[in-house]
Amino acid sequence: MLAKQRGASQENAFLQTYHSQLRRRKSVFVKDLVPPSGYYYPNKMGRILLISMEEVMGRNGLNALLNLIDLRDYMQDLPPDNLEREFDFAHISNLNKSLREIYGPRGGRGLALRGGRAIFSRGLRQFGALAGVSDLAFKVLPLKTKLKIGVPAVARIFTQFSDQTSHVEEMDDHFLYTIERCSECWQQTSDRPVCYIAVGILQETLRWVSGGLEFRVDQVACKAMGHEACAFRIDKDPIK
Ligand SMILES: [Zn+2]
């Protein structure tokens, strides 16, 4: 009994310290939070984003992050599985920014990339079906044609279902994927590109479209750096 009580009080002391640390950290982060933007992802995409981040960070990691960016409500209830545009760009920007602040530039980048890949495989494919691009239609086409259809299809999905407008231009040896209104770097400033979730989404899209190949994707412009838009260079030739 005594041992049990001692255990409980130790646990309480631990929790108190933990929470006061969190509060201190929260006060650091909250003042830097990006305010609501009035631009939205559909709830379904917000839901997929949180499920995917949980997959790569674990439940506790995601909860700590949600706590720091003032989105505690989503610890209990994910956004509903519908297409209403209610998941504010600021949520995505704050999540992306806090990944870097908590895990450092390299750690944050790794998690964002893995999260982006999980977002595609976990759920963005469902939007492919809605946009009229099915897995089956891709199987029979030559690689060049698959890329020509698949890359702009992703841009159309975001433009059609969210306030994140995107378009794709085809160049000789690459595609230039441009996000005019980007949620990931919304209202941020940085001296380097920060939209690694998008890089992960594009990498995984290309893997799906090509039937398992890897492609080089580089962010070549970022609004956070003062550029007009966020832009990604996608090589047409797969990495060997
Ligand atoms: Zn961006």
Account of the protein in words:
By secondary structure, the chain is of the alpha+beta class. It has a single domain (14-235), classed as H-NOX domain (Alpha-Beta Complex), CATH 3.90.1520. 58% of the residues lie in helices and 12% in strands. It is built from seven helices and six strands, in the order αβααβαααββαββ. It has helices spanning 2-30, 43-68, 73-76, 89-130, 135-139, 143-161, 196-210, and strands spanning 40-42, 85-88, 166-170, 174-179, 217-221, 230-235. Strands 3-4-6-5 form a four-stranded antiparallel beta sheet, covered by helices on one side. β5 (217-221) and β6 form a beta hairpin. The longest helix is centred in the middle third of the chain and has 42 residues, at 89-130. Bound molecules: zinc ion. Zinc ion (ZN) is lined by residues 179, 182, 184-185, 195, 222-223, 230.
Summarize the structure.
The chain is α+β, with helices and mostly antiparallel strands and 240 residues long. It has seven helices and six strands; from the N terminus they run αβααβαααββαββ. 37% of the residues are buried.
Q: Topology of this structure?
A:
Layout lengths: L1 H29 L9 E3 H26 L4 H4 L8 E4 H42 L4 H5 L3 H19 L4 E5 L3 E6 L16 H15 L6 E5 L8 E6 L5
Antiparallel strand pairs: 1-2, 3-4, 4-6, 5-6
Instruction: Report the radius of gyration as a whole number of Å.
Output: 20 Å
Number of domains: 1
Q: State the secondary-structure class.
A: alpha+beta
CATH class call: Alpha Beta
Distance between the termini: 63 Å
